[in-house]
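Write out this protein's structure.
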Amino acid sequence: MDAYEYSKGIKAAGRSANIEFAVMLFKEAAIKGIKKTITYNALMSVFMVNGLADWCQSLFCDLKRDPTCDPSIATYNILISVFGGLMLVDHMEATFREIQKLDLAMNIYTYNYLIAGYLTAWMWDDMEKVFQMLMSGPVEPNMKTYMLMLRGYANSGNLDKMEEMYSLVSDHVNENGFKLISCMICAYSKSSEVDRLEKIEALMKFIPKEDYRPWLNVLLIKLYAKEDCLEKMENAINEAFQHGTSITTNSIMRCIIATYFRCNAVEKLESFVRRAEISGWVICRSLYHCKLVMYGSQGPLIAMHNVLQEMENVKLDCTKKTLWIMYKAYMSRGQGSMVLKTLGQMFKHGYEVPLGAFPS
């Protein structure tokens, strides 16, 4: 075999994660006197894709000491990729300066690896500088470049540039870029754009229904809750129950509860609480306090007493807020004896009660 064929064999071994065989092929080529820059590059790329950054850098040092070989632009591209993936930005930039010093002709891989490195480190300004450098030079960007920039703009929340980049590669992204679509959905969800829901729902059409992602399901629940889209929120909640997805954060549960409250949907709240308890979702007092407020203002008082029993069943004690909700409900319904009983409980637990709280 010649050096080119050895390099192909080394890369093939690396793709199979057979590092030992890749190293053996490299050494065999050296014994036969056909150790070349491309064989060094091949083994460096094997170390790169298998997460062996130290081995990759060590082999690069061997290459620089080898009097029969010189590093090529491909060699430096591999180093930039390794350092960028590890967020070793200083090393990545030092490698780039060495390329400029040696006056090597940079190719699209050089720019893409630099962009990816800055993207990984969330250094958006530097990412943009490399992209503008590319656009003003002789090298043409490729699909990978646009996809990287789209991800960068989405992660940085730069919606204008994200949408501009998406318009260039929308066909490819819609067909193959589920992860990028997810990034865009996250970007919209964090924005304050008036039409963010419409844009998110338009993107959701390109995600196959069988490709379910729990985090995306929860994100939609939270978003619909904030927008008071009760029906859509409940559809997303039902999907979560069907897939066994659990919500484990109080903040999202409070968003859901607030939507039921603002939409005055006490029966739907009741059903949701029962299903959440059964499905192992996080249980917080706000769930039951909301039911207390809603039953206290419009439902039979017996329903409010039942809520207290539910709290006891899930081992949630009455707090000052619980008792104040009950006090106000009894006051508004003219239940003087229950008002006194509730005030007595507040005294019993040591909660301060204003003198004006006593009924006349």
